[in-house]
Amino acid sequence: MPRPLDWPRARDAEMLRLLRRPGATLRTVAGVMGVSRCFAQRRTVVLCLRGPEMECASNRAEAGETPLPPGHPISMGAIMVPSQIAPAW
């Protein structure tokens, strides 16, 4: 039976740095880091779930189910959240 992979946070930071490079793909990043493409994809999903996007979701749930008016801070905050994978322009 395979043993669990010890994956420190420093490796997450390295993975994000590699993914932000021009022309980077999950396949090349996985090859550089010595993991499978599937594992690299799962880690990127976990990294994105830990980002500021989750803050937007909890703020929206607290505001209730009614539609927000145009320009509301919650909806504008969700639009302006930077992606952790996409390069910050």
Give the SSE map.
Layout: H1 9-19, H2 26-33, H3 37-49, H4 53-63, H5 73-80
Helix pairs in contact: 2-3, 4-5
Short recap of the structure:
The protein is mostly helical.
Describe this structure in words.
- The protein is mainly α.
- The chain has one domain (9-62, 71-80).
- It is built from 5 helices and no strands.
- It is elongated.
- The termini are far apart.
- This is AsnC family protein.
The CA-CA distance between the termini, in Å, is 44 Å
Q: Helix coverage percent of residues?
A: 55-70%
How many individual domains? 1
Strand content: under 5%
Rough outline: elongated
Q: Averaging pLDDT over every residue, what do you get?
A: 77
Radius of gyration: 17 Å
Number of strands: 0
Tally of contiguous helical segments: 5
Along the chain, the helix and strand elements come as HHHHH
Structural class based on helices, strands and sheet pairing: mainly alpha
Unreliable stretches (pLDDT < 50, length at least 5) are none
Largest beta-sheet characterization: none
Keywords:
89 residues, 0% strand
